[in-house]
Amino acid sequence: MLKPNIENFIGCDCDYERSRMVLYGAPFDSTTSFRPGARFGPSAMRHESFGLETYSPYQDADLTERAVFDSGDLELCFGSAQTALEAIEARAAEILQDGKFPLLLGGEHLVTLGAVRAAVKRYPELHIIHFDAHADLRDDYLGAKLSHACVLRRCHELAGDGRIHQFCIRSGDREEFRFAEAHTDMHPFGFEGLEKTVSALREQRVPVYFTIDLDCLDPSAFPGTGTPEAGGVSFLQLLEAIRTICTTHVVGADINELAPMLDPSGVSTATACKVLRELILALHNNGY
Q1: What CATH number has the domain bearing residue 220?
Q2: pLDDT in tens, 122-165
Q3: Do 270 and 226 contact (CB within 8 A), yes or no?
Q4: How far lies 61's CA from each of 95, 183, 284, in Å?
Q5: In-domain check, residue 7
Q6: b/e string for 97-128 if b means 16 or more Cβ within 10 A?
Q7: For the chain, how many structural domains are there in total?
Q8: Is position 258 within any domain?
Q9: pLDDT per residue over 84-93, tens digit each?
Q10: pLDDT for the residue 143
Q11: How far is CA 28 from CA 18, 54, 117, 217, 241, in A?
């Protein structure tokens, strides 16, 4: 049984046995290609969460009414992406085996691969919904196949064609967009097509893994990230999209790419905390 973290995300202090959802952090950013610092995201979100209310007026729900356990951050090997991913996969598999919902706090986006490896073993028909500024579909980045720039390409190798649904994408090389045309369901620049995608996934009753790279947000609202991209969606658009996604059969999720020291104002960390609060409540409001 997992032990509680010393400092938990606000309102997430249920004991493990009674919990339905488990937070776990992956403070890893060793493949970051521009500005590092995402390894500090999970701890910053916990610490700064106490500037929030546990109550959400967006959903008329409160974190104190939900059974969420915070297991803290994994101790990861910064010198080996593969070793770090194995540790993330093992923790996600443990949470799934215990019949609980795994919610991962990154870290750079590569950490998603460990969680998806565990999810696809338990749910072979898994679909992935991906919010991001970047396609993350490179086959390799400077020779490395385990990179935050390649994470969705590695996930595609696990899930297969037509099972990755990408939104807000506004950056990538030409080959990534050509790959998406042939193999993924990409919706660039925003959330156009989201309702149709969600409706189809609900009708098919398929399991869904939901990954949020916070740089899907416009950098004017969220500058504290390693690779900011002009454009993007607003905070309120993201919240509405999260609530929409959570009407599907979501079986695992993550939030990643907050680099708190890159925004000295603290606004990016506060935004990340509120996105996490709203995601937790949206998942619980739909039965998780």
Answers
A1: 3.40.800.10
A2: 999 999 999 999 999 999 888 888 889 899 999 999 999 999 99
A3: no
A4: 24, 38, 9
A5: no
A6: eeebbbbbbbbbbbbbbbbbbbbbeebeebbb
A7: 1
A8: yes
A9: 999 999 999 9
A10: 81
A11: 29, 27, 17, 21, 27
- At residue 38, what are phi and psi to the nearest 5 degrees? -65, -20
Containing domain of residue 173, as a range? 21-285
Task: Say if residue 226 is preceded by a cis peptide, omega within 30 of 0.
Answer: no
Query: In terms of Cα–Cα distance, which of 38, 13, 97 is closest to 280?
Result: 13
240 within some domain: yes
CA distance 249 to 273: 23
Question: Which of 4-13, 95-104, 146-155, 251-260 is the least confident region?
Answer: 4-13
All residues at 6 or more sequence positions from 170 whose CB lies less than 8 Å from its CB, including other chains: 133, 188, 189, 229, 231, 232
At residue 223, does pLDDT exceed 70?
A: yes
pLDDT class of 55 with cuts at 50, 70, 90: very high
Task: Look up tokens 């993007």; give the residue.
Answer: 232
Cα→Cα distances 167→99, 180, 216, 282, Å: 29, 12, 8, 19
Query: Is the pTM higher than 0.70?
Result: yes
Whether the CB-CB separation of 77 and 84 falls below 8 Å is answered with yes
> Could you count the other beta carbons within 10 Å of the beta carbon of residue 144?
15
The answer to whether residue 169 sits within a structural domain is yes
